[in-house]
Amino acid sequence: MSNIDQLTQLIEDAKKAIDEVKSIHELNETKAWYLGKKSPLQAIMKTMKDLSIEEKKELGQKVNECRDQINKLIDDKRVALEEAKILEKLNSEKIDVTLPGKKVARGSYHPLTQIIMEVESIFKGMGYTVAEGPEVELDVFNFEMLNVPKGHPARDMQDTFYINESILLRTQTSPVQVRTLLESKGAPVKILCPGKVYRRDDDDATHSHQFMQFEGLVVDKHITMSDLKGTLKLFVNKMFGEDFQIRFRPSFFPFTEPSVEVDVSCFKCEGKGCPMCKQTGWIEILGAGMVHPNVLKASGYDPKLYRGFAFGIGIERVAMLRHGIDDIRHFYTDDIRFLQQFE
Ligand code: DAH
């Protein structure tokens, strides 16, 4: 067979071989076989040395053409293989838009958090700012500067967890009153402070060793008890409804004078008397009073110039009344069936 015929045959062979190739890897191997160092093309080139100049030129041209053709065949095949691969991928990844979607479970605010946000928003509307204080508190702030010295009988009702003689888990949010007054250095104060408090208590349906309170404190030059009453009436009406009444009952707190317990008309019977309100028509919701002069004095406010009112609300109690919850422990046992009702 002449060199030229061999080249024509080679192209034919290469065409067939390339046609049958099924992968890029095979294609690379085929390319090496037909165009590499040990390829038939090289063998044909080697015969050149015995040829005349004319023949050399002709054969050289043919070899180049042959190489170009095979190269083109390989390049076309490469493109075809890559396209096929993409197509296959597209087909295998087809999305069925009619399939039902996966449900994304959504969380929600804890019922106590919901109450906190609502109450905060009511008081912010009256110009209050939200304050915070530590849960691990000094005895001085939790008791002493609130007019409850060591040995005071009021401490008996608020036994707590002691870190040492002078550090404890706060029993009430009232120490934030002292902290805020000290920070404000004689300037008027108007704060609301939500937070956790602790007491040494046996847990049952209405008692928990950990619970939450709101502390409110307003101190300025002309604050009176009627400001307190108006504020609390507005709070109750925004929180529970316009028809609700409040009433003040005389009480005792060491850090207020006078002190009151505040009742709201019963949710269930609207004041007629029922088992929920123990036939009184009223339900107790918070403690309050006019800030005791000793508290003002201890925090650097002159009680002859300044007066204030304060109040303390149990957050769980508000939530329980609002939602008709009968056991305080539900708030802390994280039963998803309970929590899902407040989404
Ligand atoms: N700290 C009181 C308690 O835990 C509640 C309270 C009563 C707070 C009267 C006040 C207040 O600010 O004026 O029982």
Summarize the structure.
The chain is of the alpha+beta class and 343 residues long. Helices cover 41% and strands 20% of the residues. The protein folds into two domains: 3-92; 111-342, 2-Layer Sandwich (BirA Bifunctional Protein, domain 2).
> Structurally, how many domains make up the residues?
2
| SS-based class | alpha+beta
Mean pLDDT: 93
Low-confidence segments: none
CATH architecture of the largest domain, by name, is: 2-Layer Sandwich
CATH homologous superfamily label of the largest domain = Bira Bifunctional Protein, Domain 2
As a whole number of angstroms, the C-alpha radius of gyration is 44 Å
Ligand roster: 3,4-dihydroxyphenylalanine
Amino- and carboxy-terminal Cα gap: 89 Å
- Morphology: rod-shaped
Count of extended strands: 10
With helices defined by DSSP (H or I, 4 residues minimum), what is the helix count? 11
CATH class category name of the largest domain? Alpha Beta
CATH topology group of the largest domain? BirA Bifunctional Protein, domain 2
The portion of residues assigned to helices is 40-55%
* SSE succession: HHHHHEEHEEHEEHEEEHEHH
Give me the side-by-side strand order of the main sheet. Answer: 1-5-6-10-9-8-7
Largest sheet: 7 strands, mixed
Strand content: 15-25%
